[in-house]
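Dear Dr. L.,

I hope this message finds you well. Following up on our conversation about the binding site, I have prepared a predicted three-dimensional model of the protein together with phosphoenolpyruvate. For your records, I am including the exact sequence and ligand specification that went into the calculation, followed by the structure tokens. Please feel free to forward this to your student if that is useful.
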Amino acid sequence: MTEHTEHTERNREALLVKTTSFPSLAELFGTAAPCLIAGPCAVESLDQAEAIAQALVRCGIKVMRGGAYKPRTSPYDFQGLGEDGLKILDFIRQKYGVLIVTEILDPRDLELGVRYADMIQIGSRNMQNTSLLKEAGQTMHPVMLKRGMMSTLKEFMFAAEYIAQTGNHKLILCERGIRTFETSTRNTLDISSAAIIKQETSLPVIVDLSHSLARKDILLPVAKAVLALGVDALMVEAHNDPASALSDAAQQLSLPELEEFAADLFC
Ligand code: PEP
Ligand code: MN
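The resulting structure of the complex is given below.
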């Protein structure tokens, strides 16, 4: 056996994501567990972000999501405000005391992500972008990795391994549904994956209900079922005027809907 093969074999048996003790979200951020993460699909303006942040504060939600770089299917759709969006998020976290999670698409923007956000999101489309995984890991900033929409759990674990290998243990996984033949939801929420990750690793797990379901009518019962798995957080999209949202208009909760959801969730 060559040295390389031996090394590979050893790692195959003992993945870092399976053997390392990872801090929980509560340990990383001092948030109560389980917690709710909410915010717009995309940051569209300061006014929009402020209106949403104010609703989060009313609900006692401590973590805000919002995209400044949006991975859109069509290049003609809104791509996000870029650095200006990150600056809005930074302003929001300082003014409202919320933590920020935002997606970075390009390794060249990681430095800005570290500067302006508390947790860097690597989205579903980039789960297997190994350069981005490694460079995001090397920032030593908290990284939330979303499951690829067509990835097996094993592939998800190996993607997480690229980050863990850098020595960055501020690693959080997010289940966001996978593509199946079923069309009644945008993706099929794989709740068994969250249960398996919780059972086999100490990694914090977040379930993104909005991108899984893309429907609001079943959000509450599904959220309650997911909480029963013992996940660390749920994530939902919310917007001050969902009908005019520049992305994911159909799935974003209005602010009154968010307040009702947050109030009902932990009852
Ligand atoms: C998002 O959370 O903004 C997003 C684009 O989600 P996903 O990568 O899961 O599609
Ligand atoms: Mn979205």
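In brief: Residues 46-59 form the longest helix (14 residues).

With kind regards,
A. P.
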